[in-house]
Each structure stands twice: as C-alpha cells, then as structure tokens.
Amino acid sequence: MNYVELYQSGELLQRIREAYRRLETCDLCPHDCGVNRIKGERGLCGAGLKPKIASANVHTGEEPPISGTHGSGTIFLSGCSLKCRFCQNFPISQLGNGEEVSTAALAVRMMKLQHQGVHNINFVTPTHFLPQILAALWLAIPQGFRLPLVWNSSGYERVDALKLLHGVVDIYLPDMKYVNDAVALRLSYIKGYREANLLAVKEMLRQVGHLQTDAKEIAVKGLIIRHLVLPERLSGTRDTLQWISLNCGEETHVSLMSQYFPAHAAHEESGVNRRISLEEYEETVEWLSDANLEHGWVQEHEDP
C-alpha cells in the first residue's frame, strides 16, 4: 500500500499537520468557510474538530467491485458540505445524527472492519473530515491496517485538499451531480459546483487512474464516477456523460443511478417532487451508449 510508504517516510505525518493547520481557517471544501474548527467553530457542513460517525458496518449495496463478495467496510460520516433538498441520508448529512469520537476510536473502527474481512474501508461523505481520517490512518497502520481506502464523496472538492490524499486513497467514488450551477444552487445550496467538480474529478483520475481489479474482480485502485439521474433532466446527464467520455476517456467506469426518490424536502421543490420515469431513465442509458461509455453499471428501473 502506498500509504504505508508515506507513513514510513514521515510524509503522512507532514500531511496530517498541514491538514489540521487548514482547520484553523477551514478551507477543506470550496465553501471556504474560514471558521476555526480547532476551537470548535462550525461552518456550513456542521463539523467541529472531532470526527463524527453515524455508522460503521459491512455494506453489500455498493457497486460490484466495491462490495465484492465480503462487503465494503462503510463508515458514514455526519454532516456534509452540500445541503441537497432531496438527500436520502438527510438525518446523517443535514441533521447531524452520529457520535463524535476521537481519531483513535475511528482507527479502532477501521481495524474492526478489517478483521471482519471486508474488501476496503469506504468513507462516505468524508471531505470535511479529511485531517481526522489521515490521523486515524496514521494510528491504524502500525496496528496492521492494510485495506484499500475508498473516498466516497459529493465531488465538491478542492484540488489542493485532494492532493493531501495522493498515495493515500486507492479508489475515488465521486458524484457528478449537476451541469447547471443555478440548479445546483437551488437544490443543494452550493455555488460553483460545476467547475469545482470537473477539476476535482480530473485530479482524482490523475492520482489513481482508471479502475483496476484483482483476479476476483474486486477493486484495488482507480476511479468510479456516480451520476444520479434527476427528473426533468435537471442533473444534465447528457452533458455530464459526454464530458466524462471526452475528458476522462471512454474506459472510465460510470455508475448511472435510477434510484432517485423525493426524500427530505424534495416534495416542496418543483421538478424533483417525483421519481424519475422509466422513459427518463432509458433516455439516459441511450446517452451512455452515445458517449461510448461501456464500462460501469446501470440499474433496473420500473415506472413508479
């Protein structure tokens, strides 16, 4: 594992120090809140100094190379830099359900999941806890931790923050949510999502390349892009798929998701207050083919 080499060279410790320094005027995500999280101040994501965990369990519902046969060691982190009105995990991401723990306790959970035989440790919504994750990894390595790390994020990232993860994260699993920034602002309360997202995905690809699997087709390294199809073409699916094909390559693995339903406050929002139709999803599958993106996954979908 590359992170073992970073640990042995002292580079990992240097990155931890730099990451915690950034918490003094927090700029881990493009919101650049500037709050002093070392002193307990909280920005838009709601995170303080300690990592906050909603759950840490074996999960079998991810993409096949992530879940594999033994499951993914999924650690759901509380809070989020997005405020999606349709978030299916809103009790965790927006209400902040979870338990604040030490980085040592986070390392314990990582080790426990490794002992359970999972294929990887999958950090869900990790952006705002980047320093704490690095610190937990630093504590876990001398205990024998060796699993691949999955960075399962909204894709709303800063490139300079992602560079702290180079050689640490093995598998990037970002969302590409929107093409239209006005839609992103209305539905997720984020500014400049498109530009930040495109730059972040390019950096992720630079670090880990395209998806690589072992003899059992379990992911060991690489990029998988997730795209959730929204009703009424609000997610800009066609443009997103074309961009992936042209800028990341036709060999890119894409998970095209049909599972949208109007959770949280979506019933109050025009356009997203219903599930997508079978016709809408079949249209996006055709766009996937038009973009020559043949690697990845589509979901079964029936009319609601």
TrEMBL record:
The lineage of its organism: Bacteria, Pseudomonadati, Thermodesulfobacteriota, Desulfuromonadia, Geobacterales. Residues 75-209 form the Radical SAM core domain. InterPro entries: Aldolase_TIM, MJ0674-like, Pyrv-formate_lyase-activ_prd, rSAM. It comes from Pelotalea chapellei. Gene3D superfamilies: Aldolase class I. CDD domains: Radical_SAM. It comes from the Bacteria. Keywords: Iron, Iron-sulfur, Metal-binding, S-adenosyl-L-methionine. This is Radical SAM protein. Its cofactor is [4Fe-4S] cluster.
